[in-house]
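Please fill in the sequence for the structure shown.

STRUCTURE ENCODING:
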């Protein structure tokens, strides 16, 4: 095979080319976030990477594996990071069977991939092949190797629940971070997350991963990256030590998540989730579960705030993800007014929040997934006391409007 570009010396400090994939609809934000994360790396003599942003991926050139290791460990909104193994024009690009030609080139690149595994027999040919991806533009095919292997959104912890259709973890992580940035959320030990449509708890677990700065290698799943020659073990140890020291200094105060939903079958599932994540976090997460209606809560949010108030500003974050049936427009009848009810409830909760202690209130922010322009408008009209921003994302082939909100003081 006549390779136009290929990795020849895969030492850990060698600048290489990469492709970084992110959830659809977040190109500008993802590019800015990755650029910001790369700037956080406090290691000497790091190359200056070049980013080129496309609809669903970023081409990252002249970045070494020390820099990539940081993204791999802590950029949990990323769908995949792929190392560019080789490029070639040695294919019949005029053929109508371009897809099969692309697959042939991928097959031919397996020896390139195998050469950067320290143990050449550590993976079968078929396994390495499953980690490889090909893309073609004009007359050139590029072959890349996934550092995750399985999709990055698979955390390896969540159990199955028959009636659920959770938002992917990478998109969830992105929305949480986007919402915190939109609201200007600062580190605040006195904060709660309120999940009225908790479902299988993806928003809760991704919140914990984000605030704890949990590294990917803490998760119970297999990755390809640690098996490569370019894996910078000392650098990752350095990152983890730095993050651990910072998290220990930020640990004072309250970080609590209230899981709420109307399906009694979730109670057993939640208990198992808490036990599973306790092993990951190395401590019991501060989660409280209850089966109840968001619109008729057993304990109103205002009462919760007064109960935990200690003359310090309390911040509340509300990720709102109504049942999947609403997004597919399969639920109607008595629940047709769900979104106007959500809007009016948020407005009332905002008033309760401000009345808790007007002199020292924190943030009251969050976001809502809306399945249509009509539902989005119904909520927007109720949130006149809130700053708002909307982005479009795709989940399960459905275009969603994500409405971010932040209560004006």
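FILLED IN BY: designer on duty
SEQUENCE:
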């Amino acid at each position: 095979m006549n390779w136009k570009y290929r990795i020849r010396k895969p030492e850990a400090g060698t600048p290489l080319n990469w492709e970084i994939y992110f959830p659809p609809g977040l190109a500008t934000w993802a590019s800015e976030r990755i650029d910001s994360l790369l700037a956080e790396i406090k290691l000497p003599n790091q190359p200056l990477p070049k980013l080129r942003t496309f609809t669903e991926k970023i081409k990252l050139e002249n970045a070494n594996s020390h820099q990539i290791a940081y993204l791999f460990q802590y950029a949990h909104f990323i769908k995949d990071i792929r190392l560019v193994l080789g490029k070639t024009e040695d294919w019949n690009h005029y053929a109508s069977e371009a897809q099969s030609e692309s697959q042939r080139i991928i097959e031919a690149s397996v020896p390139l991939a195998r050469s950067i595994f320290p143990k050449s027999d550590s993976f079968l040919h078929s396994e390495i092949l499953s980690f490889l991806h090909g893309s073609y533009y004009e007359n050139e095919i590029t072959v890349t190797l996934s550092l995750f292997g399985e999709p990055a959104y698979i955390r390896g912890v969540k159990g199955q629940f028959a009636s659920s259709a959770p938002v992917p973890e990478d998109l969830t992580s992105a929305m949480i971070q986007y919402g915190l940035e939109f609201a200007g959320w600062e580190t605040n030990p006195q904060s709660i997350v309120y999940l009225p449509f908790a479902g299988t708890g993806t928003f809760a677990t991704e919140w914990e991963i984000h605030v704890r700065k949990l590294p990917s290698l803490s998760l119970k799943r297999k990755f390809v990256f640690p098996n490569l020659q370019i894996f910078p073990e000392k650098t990752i140890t350095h990152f983890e030590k730095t993050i651990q020291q910072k998290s220990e200094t930020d640990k004072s105060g309250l970080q609590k998540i209230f899981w709420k939903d109307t399906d009694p079958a979730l109670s057993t599932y939640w208990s198992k989730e808490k036990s599973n994540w306790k092993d990951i976090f190395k401590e019991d997460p501060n989660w409280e579960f209850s089966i109840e209606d968001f619109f008729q809560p057993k304990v109103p949010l205002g009462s919760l705030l007064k109960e935990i108030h200690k003359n310090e500003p309390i911040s509340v974050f509300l990720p709102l993800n109504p049942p999947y049936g609403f997004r597919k427009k399969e639920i109607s009848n008595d629940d047709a007014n769900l979104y106007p009810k959500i809007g009016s409830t948020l407005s009332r909760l905002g008033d309760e929040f401000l009345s808790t202690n007007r002199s020292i209130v924190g943030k009251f922010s969050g976001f809502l997934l809306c399945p249509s322009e009509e539902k989005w408008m119904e909520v927007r009209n109720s949130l006149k006391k809130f700053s708002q921003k909307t982005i479009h994302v795709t989940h399960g082939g459905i275009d969603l409007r994500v409405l971010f909100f932040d209560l004006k003081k």
